[in-house]
Amino acid sequence: MTENLLKPVVETSYLTAVNVARYRCVMRYFYEQHQRLRYWLKPEDVFEGVLGYGALEDYTLEQCQNDMDQLVEWKNLIPRHDGGRASTVEEYLRKKFRYQMTPYSVEIERLLEGLEKIRGYGGSLEPTLLEAIARGLKIIEETGCFGEGEAHQTWKATYDAFTQLTQEAADYIASLQSAKAEELMLSEAFLIYKNSLTRYLQNFVRGLQVHGLKVEGMLRLITPSRRDGFFAAVLDDRAGMPQLDDISSPEEQRYHLELEWDSLVRWFLGDARAVSDLQFLEQATKDTIAKIVRCALRIQEKQRSGVSRKRELDYLGRWFFNLNGMDEAHKLAAYTFGLYRTRHFQGIDNKGTDSTEISMWDTGPNVRSLHSRSRGRRRDGGTQAIASSREREEQARKDYLARRREKEALLRAYVQAGELTISDLQDVPPALRHQLLYWIGQCIGSRSRTIRTAEGVQIRILLPPGGRRTMLKCVDGSLDMPDYTLVFRDPSGQFTRSIHNEQ
Prior knowledge:
The chain is α+β, with helices and mostly antiparallel strands. The protein has helices spanning 2-6, 20-35, 43-53, 61-73, 89-93, 103-116, 127-142, 150-176, 179-185, 190-221, 224-239, 250-269, 277-303, 310-321, 326-337, 390-417, 430-445, 494-502, and strands at residues 77-81, 97-101, 419-421, 450-452, 458-462, 469-474, 477-482, 485-489. It has 4 domains: 2-116, Arc Repressor Mutant, subunit A; 127-241 and 249-295, no CATH class; 308-339, no CATH class; 397-502, no CATH class.
């Protein structure tokens, strides 16, 4: 397998050669005759067939012979000496040949023929394929002894149905996600297909839910011994159909048979690392149905956008007016209008607390000044006086001094106490919590675990023994944190003397 994977495929050289048009015509004629069971062709017949396409001008028999010789070098054709037509020794010595396509070339042309017919993803969703898989697994589980050729036919029908199901379903779902389908879903013409497409997908989902569960149940009922016995019957049937060009050993055939079985089991049952592909397919189909419904509703809303909705709005307004409370009004607004379009404002959301349990309805509004974003400049209406900011500055100075006095009072109390343990605090206000967390963060960030405030007070943090933790109980919630101890000292004594002087 590794050698086949790594070696170059010289048989595809004629698809990119300089005279690709001539090679393609020769190979397509060979392929068409192969389909008609004419395998060995003479150069004259090939030449006449290529001319019949009408695609090559000034094409000669000598060029046709040279093209077939080149295709022989690329292993696309197999030559065989044609000595039956010779009537003299000279004609026999000229070595006229007949040519046949190689198996690789047949598959390449078959692939190209299929590619030429592709106009999209295609595919389909057929619940009958699930029924065929379930039926085959039921035969495997119930039949202990197979007749001649029955096991091979059962497995071939089951695995072919499985392969077709996965490929067709993947292609069909991909076609619904393509750009062409997206464009169609945005047009009004999509409403014609909406009902039939939705019904088609819903029928497939029901088939998945019914027959998919049957397949899962049958796979779990088949024991390893029953599976091994079935594999042996399949290999016996294949041994009774010898293939001249198949040189794989029974061990290799058994290995490939087990790989096919494992892929079937993994697709329906999944494994330890991921859920089954059956669930993915079911969810993808349901998501596609929801997408179709959303697109249809969007198109219908667009059609109704020009229609007057005065009566509906009047009815809705009376409904709001007759409600008993604000909570009911909020619920009705949520059902009617949904989420409003979000607008983002730059700044800090000042809720007054860090608790996530406080609702936005329980906090005060945040005032933001909005300015026009228009690029057109407005004409000045005349001279304007300079706005005085003295009152705002004075208020800001008072607020700063008040916060500083609160901080100094807090420091004085802690300096007099000498130390503070987190577990001893109760009903801590938000301002005190912010200050304590600021001091703790500064101390933790220092190598000596010690900081000095602007007032000259030295604060040192002591880590809790054994990593002990506690709950800092605040007025707006509780905070789980280590049980730190803060030690306050005034080395210079100036801050302590100022306390006594004020007293």
